[in-house]
């Protein structure tokens, strides 16, 4: 490009998206004179899902603005907790985030997930059709224009991923109300009604059960309950009242 030159600053939280020479507090960027500011920011590696605001010469500006020579541009991060207007807060996770999806469901968060890769176009179309926030570590996927909303998941560790999503979006938490396998809602189940789905040892040892209203999977407080309880307790202790910040 050999058009107007602008001075651009990425917020510290966004600099890791850019190549090293663009991570300085201010960097000169030569534009083509016709591309929007949103396109310029994305060309530096920053998904617009992570941008909370754009200041041009100190004034809030839309992503559709075409930057002119000598302008200074400040790219701000998303403000947390982030408001997602227009639909109930619910998520769609790509194929690489299965553990995160199960943990969100454990906490009662609506988290759709496909164990088979339906491809970027399919994920973006589902995000738009169902108005779900797409969670991904794929920057290219988050740049697709048909997305309804999206967010980059910054860590590859499930514990940190969960804290990242809960801290960013402050969803309502209702532990033990969703099926971790299919995302359906759970209902209390009488032992006799689920008896045929239980092994003999389980029938003898446990008396309290829940069943998914969609896939009919049966749940009880088995051998893994202590580990799951620790995940729930940690999330509720840190984020249980986070939704109030959006009120």
Automatic annotation (TrEMBL):
Supply the InterPro entries for this chain.
Mut7-C_RNAse_dom, Ub_Mut7C
Q: Which residues form a coiled coil?
A: none
Q: Which residues form the Ubiquitin Mut7-C domain?
A: 4-82
Where do the Mut7-C RNAse domain residues begin and end? Answer: 90-231
Query: Which protein is depicted?
Result: Mut7-C ubiquitin/RNAse domain-containing protein
């Amino acid at each position: 490009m050999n058009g107007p030159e602008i001075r651009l600053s990425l917020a510290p939280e966004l600099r890791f998206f850019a190549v090293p020479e663009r991570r300085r507090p201010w960097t000169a960027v030569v534009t083509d004179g016709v591309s929007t500011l949103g396109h310029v920011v994305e060309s530096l590696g920053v998904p617009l899902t992570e941008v909370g605001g754009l200041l041009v010469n100190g004034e809030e500006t839309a992503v559709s603005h075409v930057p002119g020579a000598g302008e200074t541009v400040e790219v701000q991060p998303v403000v947390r907790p982030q408001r997602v207007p227009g639909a109930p807060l619910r998520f769609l996770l790509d194929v690489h985030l299965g553990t995160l999806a199960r943990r969100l469901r454990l906490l009662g968060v609506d988290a759709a997930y496909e164990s088979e890769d339906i491809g970027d176009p399919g994920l973006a179309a589902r995000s738009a059709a169902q108005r779900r926030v797409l969670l991904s570590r794929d920057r290219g996927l988050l740049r697709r224009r048909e997305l309804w909303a999206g967010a980059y998941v910054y860590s590859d560790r499930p514990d940190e991923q969960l804290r990242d999503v809960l801290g960013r979006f402050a969803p309502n938490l209702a532990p033990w109300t969703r099926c971790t396998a299919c995302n359906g809602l759970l209902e209390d189940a009488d032992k006799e009604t689920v008896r045929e789905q239980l092994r003999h040892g389980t029938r003898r040892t446990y008396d309290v059960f829940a069943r998914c209203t969609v896939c009919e999977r049966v749940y009880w407080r088995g051998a893994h309950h202590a580990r799951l309880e620790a995940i729930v307790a940690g999330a509720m202790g840190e984020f249980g009242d986070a939704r109030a910040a959006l009120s």
